[in-house]
Amino acid sequence: MQTFSDLNFNVTVEQTSKMAGAELGLYATLQQYKLPLDGRVYADISSPDGDIRTVELKSSKKGFFSGKFKSTSSGLYHLRLRAMGMSLTGKRFTRETIRTVSLYRENPIIHTEDSPKSEMNLSAIIDCLLAQKGVIEYLRERGIDLNDFPKCLKASGMRPIREQSSSKKKRRDFNQTERQMLDRFQSFLTTKKDVDLINSVPKMRKVDFPTPDIPTHSKKALSMPVSPGVRLNEKGKLEIVKFKHKSDAKGKKPTEK
Asked: Which of 37, 102, 120, 164 lies at a CB distance of 3.0 to 4.6 Å from 30, suitable for a disulfide?
């Protein structure tokens, strides 16, 4: 059975989210012939766990009422809103309406060290797929412009892996141990470079000079060392003198090689 009345009781329920713990905003208006009426409004709220709580809606101005309720659990909430007051003709009235609100259980958010890498991993997969000729031809056959694909990634909050790798963080300073290892490595490279440079120089070929005529009385002088470890032989050529011990070079007679 439907009835019509010139006295209207309108209710609106707003919620901050669809998850448990959301705040419910209750708003009601009382009007007769579109003129605001004074009165009192209550909300009987039945929680999913069976708890019933009554909330009184405060009047901000004539004919307008508002109130808030903090949810505690997920499930279906039943709201029974009641209004009472005096009409423009001075008669007492009551109005009643029902509203329902459903809240879901929120999934726990687990923050790990790998969470920041998920975006980069997904971007790497996309870059790998786009490197395949078959995937590129498949997309082009369906009218997908690959030049616009990076724009789509940026619009979704992601960046291509190439762009991520180019935006490197500022390099940190080396600590003492790392600096010592770097110095040793640079020393090794310098030594190896010098050795390679020396090996690249062509070897000098041996040149035999003509032997001059030496008087007989000078042969004894030729047997004397010219410098430590080097002397002239009878043919007037330099030769290396091999010592048995280091002490032989100071005073003992050298042994010819």
From this structure: 37
Is residue 242 one of the residues assigned to a domain?
Answer: no
How many C-beta neighbours within 10 Å does residue 39 have? 22
Verify that 79 and 133 share a domain, yes or no.
no
For 228, the enclosing helix (H) or strand (E) is none
37 touches 65 (CB < 8 A): no
pLDDT per residue, tens digit, the chain (257 aa), is 566 788 899 999 999 888 888 899 999 999 998 899 999 999 999 999 889 999 999 998 899 999 999 988 889 999 999 999 999 988 999 999 999 999 887 655 544 554 455 555 666 666 676 667 777 777 777 777 766 666 666 666 555 545 544 444 555 566 677 676 667 655 655 555 555 655 565 655 555 655 555 555 555 554 554 455 556 667 666 666 665 555 444 555 555 54
For residue 54, what is the domain's CATH number? 2.60.40.1930
Q: Is residue 79 part of a domain?
A: yes
Burial-class residue 9 by CB neighbours within 10 Å (0-12, 13-18, 19+). buried
Same structural domain for residues 12 and 93? yes
| DSSP tag of 143 | T
Q: Are 65 and 59 in contact (CB under 8 A)?
A: yes
Q: How many domains does the chain have?
A: 2
Q: Is the pTM of this model over 0.70?
A: no
Name the residue range of residue 128's domain.
Answer: 118-162
CB 99 within 8 A of CB 57: no
